[in-house]
Specification:
The protein contains 7 helices and 6 strands, in the order βαβααβαβαββαα. The protein is an alpha/beta fold. Strands 1, 2, 3, 4, 5 and 6 form a 6-stranded parallel β-sheet that branches. Helix 5 runs parallel beside helix 6.
């Protein structure tokens, strides 16, 4: 049976219908009002700028973009409600949300835990897309990005974690997590500007 999507009338907003690569944006749609957020925010803003540039390239290459976002313990929340809250005046995370505001053709998955895979629909979505390479971006490098990378590795995905598209509270935290992912999950941790998306697709 053919997949539903753009080639079959696109009744469910599936765009693109197939994508060998998926760009994951983890927890960037965030109020940044938690303990330690003030230390992370400048680093996260730098990562958001690099991720926004990478996302533009990804869209041009027809790469699926998936926002993998924490539900912040609010079990009645949805992604659009979270986005509206974060875009409000005075929210510390607003500059990042404005840089990375999702498009109508982007996907989103809400997660209750650190990993984007645990208790979410991410497995099903990636299978639907036919993705085999994941570009993992977001915050925090040493928590949600790291846990998601571990779970992706155990599912045999090829991993790319651009070092300029992730952020923790400190440079030391970033360095530790990136070195760990490169060694343990075999992640490519080159800067996003060094990535050739068409080559990754092959």
């Amino acid at each position: 049976m053919p997949r539903s999507g753009a080639k079959n009338g696109d009744l469910h907003g599936n765009a693109p219908d197939e994508s060998a690569i998926a760009l994951l944006i983890i927890d960037m749609i965030n109020a940044f009002d938690f303990d330690g957020a003030a230390a992370m925010l400048p680093r996260a803003l730098g990562a958001a700028k690099a991720t926004a540039a990478l996302k533009r390239r990804a869209k041009h290459a027809n790469v699926a973009v998936i926002y993998v976002n924490d539900n912040f313990g609010r079990w009645r929340s949805d992604f659009r409600t979270i986005l509206t809250h974060v875009l409000a005046d005075g929210c510390p995370g607003r500059p990042i949300a404005e840089l990375l505001k999702p498009g109508e053709d982007d996907y989103f998955v809400l997660k209750p835990k650190h990993s984007g895979f645990q208790f979410t629909t991410l497995d099903v979505l990636l299978e639907h897309l036919g993705a085999r390479t994941l570009i993992v971006t977001g915050v925090a490098t040493n928590f949600c990005v790291l846990f998601t990378a571990h779970d992706a590795y155990m599912r045999d995905y090829r991993l790319v974690v651009p070092r300029d598209c992730v952020a923790s509270q400190t440079e030391a935290d970033d360095r530790y997590a990136l070195e760990h992912m490169a060694q343990v999950t075999k992640a490519d941790t080159r800067a996003s500007t060094a990535l050739d998306l068409s080559q990754l697709a092959r």
